[in-house]
Amino acid sequence: MNLEQLENAAARRHLAILGGFHPGPSDDVPEGYETLLLLGPDEAAGFWSHVTEGPEFADGAPDPVDRWSRRVIGGWAEEIGAMALYPFGGPPYQPFQRWATRTNRIHTSPIMLLVHDTAGLMVSFRGALALPDRIDLPPSPPNPCLTCAEKPCVTACPVGAFADGGYDVPACKSYLGTVPGQDCMTKGCAARRICPVSQRFGRVAAQSAYHMQMFKG
Questions:
Q1: Nearest 5°: phi and psi at 154?
Q2: Is 152 left (phi over 0), alpha (psi -120 to 50) or beta?
Q3: Which pLDDT score is estimated for 143?
Q4: Distance between the two ends of the chain, CA-based, in angstroms?
Q5: What is the 3-state secondary structure (H, E, C) of 64-113?
Q6: Of 193, 212, 210, which Cα lies nearest the Cα of 68?
């Protein structure tokens, strides 16, 4: 199975392959696997409407998106003899942040959040496939931040949560509980949204609102 076939199979499952790499001994990928592919929502394929119409959202049990991911990605992995790995369900947690930068399609932005060449600052992961075969991977596109002259993400946060190269999580969560903070609560993080690449990605506001609610608690 080649990358194009895997990309088509991902799209049928409302997922996108966000990047991949050939793991080495220091990558904390289980032995015997030659390729790791990171999977995220395929917004163009209607990911959110598909997931919210699924059985996990209908049964009232916790963590419907994670359970959808285990069912869909786990089933796919079983079909093709791969191992499914997830960014949730720990501890211990899989090192998705480190894996992301190994793909060379995902970089660290000026506000220290991950940025993807097509998803921008809206990049997120539903899981990964560890494949026993070495899949040919294409050359990686450049970091989109390198050609972003204005870097609007740096100043977009209403409470300066990304100042000084860090992330003030308490300030962010506190703001989300205010009346002005409802813009971020219902539409998603202002810094993520203002990224020019994010704006072309097409994530629906309802999906961002769900994840903001999970983040705020």
A1: -65, -35
A2: alpha
A3: 95
A4: 41
A5: HHHHHHHHHHHHHHHHHCCEEECCCCCCCCCCHHHHHHHCCCEEECCCCC
A6: 210
Q: What is the pLDDT of residues 32-53, one digit of tens each?
A: 999 999 999 999 889 999 999 9
Q: Residues 64-74: pLDDT tens digits?
A: 999 999 999 99
Structure tokens at 208: 């961002």
Tracing tokens 């002259």 back to the chain, one arrives at 149
Q: What is the pLDDT of residue 104?
A: 86
Q: Which amino acid is at 4?
A: E
Alpha helices in the chain (DSSP H): 3-12, 47-52, 55-58, 64-80, 96-102, 153-156, 169-176, 182-187, 190-194, 196-199, 205-216
How crowded is the C-beta side of 126, counted as CA atoms within 13 Å?
A: 27
Q: Distance (Å, rounded) from C-alpha 211 to C-alpha 97?
A: 18
